[in-house]
Amino acid sequence: MNISIQDLSHTYDALPAPIEALSSVSLQIPSGQFAALIGPSGCGKSTVLRLLAGLLKPNCGMIYLDDFPPPRAIAQKRVAWMAQSPALLPWKTARDNIELAQRVNPQPRRNSLSSDELLNLVDLADFADVYPFSLSGGMQQRVALARSLALNASVWLMDEPFASLDELTRESLAFEVIRLWHIFRVTVLWVTHNIYESVRLADRIMVMSPRPGHIHADIEVPLSRPRDETSTEFLAIVKQIRAALKAE
Known about the structure:
Elements: E1 3-12, E2 19-29, E3 34-38, H1 45-52, E4 60-65, H2 70-75, E5 79-82, H3 94-103, H4 115-121, H5 137-149, E6 155-159, H6 167-184, E7 187-192, H7 195-201, E8 204-208, E9 215-220, H8 232-246
Helix pairs in contact: 3-4, 3-5, 4-5, 5-6, 7-8
């Protein structure tokens, strides 16, 4: 699914004065690309994802997912959202949390996977009947990832989903996302503050300016996977992103 954003602006109503979050953001993400948004706190990265997810309405500009506005794409269950908190229902097991997402999708598309198949994909087949309080933070996020996959969506919107985890768990789950992306070949827009994470994961990194946010730099990552974070090429892209972040 292609993502198209044209001259997008958004202002939050607030006291004592409105907050201008985005100003004239335009970007195109072709179907199947793994793209990342990076920028300083408060620059509007999460606002872009919320607008794409239909959680907010823009003050100005156009958003299309293929040829559809977000509400229609969401109604077709073509958009999956994953936030920092796994937001699992504590009174339901891992399997039940995934099946709940499947039940709100009354017309699953071809090749939809069962809850047990999804748990197997995220290496939690032995924890299907376990409740969230008995799972580690990383395991809870794996359940949340499987729940996102349950919609068989064409776009994954990932809002720093592993930011609260320790570095080793974060890296492990990031590689898990890449493995699943290779399987499903969906379009991914990943929001992060972490420069190394963005280069580790994405094939394209869009650097946002401080608020009101706009796309300040658009950087390609022409590196094969798995990526050597000590290589000259990897570190050169890290340096390029840092320079773009300091430029404004």
